[in-house]
Amino acid sequence: MRAAGNGIELAQMNFSFPPGRPKGGPVFNFRSEGRDFSKSHRCLIPASGFLEYVGTKYPKTQYRFGLAGAPFLAIAGLWREAEGNHPVGFTMLTTSPGPDIAPYHDRQVVVLKPEDWAAWLYLTKPQAELLRPLPAGSLEVEMVREGRA
Fold first, then answer.
1. 114-116-121 Cα angle (round to 5)
2. Are the CB atoms for 61 and 147 separated by under 8 Å?
3. Distance, C-alpha 59 to centroid of its chain
4. Is pTM, for the whole model, over 0.90?
5. Of 136, 137, 113, 135, nearest to 125 (Cα)?
6. Using an 8 Å Cβ cutoff, are 66 and 139 in contact?
7. What is the pLDDT of residues 31-90, one digit of tens each?
């Protein structure tokens, strides 16, 4: 979903930005700290949850995070127009881990509260207020798969 003129439109997009350097890989996650997104194409990435993997050996332990008390969530994202042989694409913004994620990972995607969805699309609140981890207890966690030690 992205802001378009006076409304919101749905568009088919590739999940990732093209590599930033010749031998780099696709950009699925984009650090939000210290950046200004006021002139960027902002979007919401709807999801029922997201996964984090813990451990050093395959298969790693897999944890699923969801928004407490909600059937789905929205992740702050950016999208880019098609360029050359790269189609329209989107990436997820990340930030330092909040209290719900820190025991599992050193980064996390930016999960927006439903009341902040429009604020992200139209930037009606300061970015620093939006692009930060949610308070403790905002995310539910469940182990999906136990890995090897």
1. 115
2. yes
3. 24
4. no
5. 113
6. yes
7. 899 999 999 999 999 999 999 999 988 899 999 999 999 999 999 999 987 777 767 788
